[in-house]
Amino acid sequence: MFDDAYARGWQVINHANGDAAIERLIRAANAATEKHGPADRRTIGVHSQTTRTDQLDAYIELVILDANPIEVPREALFDLEVVETIKEGETIYRRDE
């Protein structure tokens, strides 16, 4: 599913309920990203409140978003920087380069 969607430039919204399912989401997104290169896909993992702390780095690196609120330990967000915020298709913040 990820390979086909990423090849077409489509967004993936995936229900991944539980840490094992989230691991499969991460592996599939990573494999498709390696094959098709990085892009602004905005992949979403629904039910990410069950994400293990050791899985958060992959979420950040692959830019997998959560459709539900998630509490992330502050130390897990390592060097995350917001460069742009888009709401309803419009840029509402862009970091000065």
At a glance:
The protein is an alpha/beta fold and 97 residues long.
In words, what does this structure look like?
This protein has one domain (2-94). It contains 3 helices and 5 strands, in the order αβαβαβββ. It has helices at residues 2-8, 19-36, 56-62, and strands spanning 13-15, 44-46, 65-66, 84-87, 90-94.
Could you list some keywords that capture this structure?
97 residues, two-stranded antiparallel ribbon, 18% strand
Largest sheet: 3 strands, parallel
Instruction: Sketch the topology as an H/E string, one letter per element.
Output: HEHEHEEE
| Largest beta sheet: strand ordering | 1-2-3
Mean pLDDT: 78
Strand proportion: 15-25%
Whole-angstrom Rg: 14 Å
Helical content class: 25-40%
Number of strands: 5
Identify low-pLDDT runs. none
Tell me the number of helical segments per DSSP (H or I, 4 or more residues long): 3
User: How many structurally independent domains?
Assistant: 1
User: What distance lies between the first and last C-alpha atoms, to the nearest angstrom?
Assistant: 36 Å
Q: Would you tell me the structural class of the helices and strands?
A: alpha/beta
